[in-house]
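MODEL INPUT / OUTPUT PAIR
PAIR INDEX: 1
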Amino acid sequence: MRHLHYSLFAVTLATLVLLISIYRITALKYHFSSPNDSASGQAVFASGVEYSLPYPGILPNNPIWPFKAFRDRLDLFFTFDPLEKAQRTLFLADKRLSAAQRLFVEGDSGRAVVTATKAEQYLELALIKGRDADVKGTDAAGFFETLFKASLTHRQMLEEMMSRAPEDGKPILNKTLDSPKKVNEQVSHFLNERGKTLLTPTPTN
């Protein structure tokens, strides 16, 4: 009985620590100057693919956001199928980016940048989970084709945000852009090895 009590206490404590850590992360917000009213005129990357992001739902500026973020992590933790885990991770990446775009439109550029950074962390994690599924013998070719399109779309949306972001926010977004570029490069290599033909998008004004 004592062992059971210790176990329950340990689980409760671990959950509390996780909730606090999520709250601290989600409460993080950069403070930038006013955003630009117009684009800089610089060429913005065009993905050249059709890829729709999911509806963002509750945004990080909502008081119940930490609980939603905790639920997302819990769902991901209890997803055991390797391919399903990769797909779920990509969905979270897309949803975070969609939320970042909405925050940016609403003028909350500080939270938008934080959320976009988290989106790209999930995007890189999706690549890792996809590789894990492939190593375990799951046919993940379809997932990697989707991830290829997602990486291009993430890059385009980040560049669009950066073109209108406050000057002091651009360096962070520029660093965040490394993630979709890296994911796209590695996914391209994976698909090329399997004889898949890929398009080569180009910048547009």
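PAIR INDEX: 2
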Amino acid sequence: MTRPLKLRAIDAEDIQVVAACLQDAIVPLSEICYRPSEQRFVLLANRFKWEGIDGAAEAADGPSVDIEDAPFERTNCAVTIDGVVRVRRRNIDLHNRSLQLCLLTILATDDGLMMVFSEGACIHLQVENWTCRIEDVGDPWPTYNCPDHALNIADGRARAEPVLLAAEG
């Protein structure tokens, strides 16, 4: 088990570290909020703990192992981005509050940050003097599922599609 993560990002280099930590996080649409008066964008993500994966797959004995002995962990992670002046979205139905988004990465752009999700969904945050903070909240829980990405080629364009694979023992 690893310690809870707590990071702050203030530039494009820092956001790459945050993006790596949040890769494959599940983000319920109902847990995303933009507060324009505070210039704050917040979300709660179900984060896969990539930092705890070293040797975890080798420790699994297959389906007969109790869930407490599962080789991987997930945890809830609060993400706060301050300095957000505008939010735009693509391929996200705001009326579908049960929608679960799978975060692939966060990119720094000329005028902000782009959260890229599976299935072509994205959220663009136009920012000024921004700061991003992430912090694990609550206790992690065990899981046998480790995210993996298959390459999907359709219409001549390649896209990474997340696939959950069970750990093999």
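PAIR 2 NOTE: Residues 29 and 98 are 7 Å apart (CA to CA).
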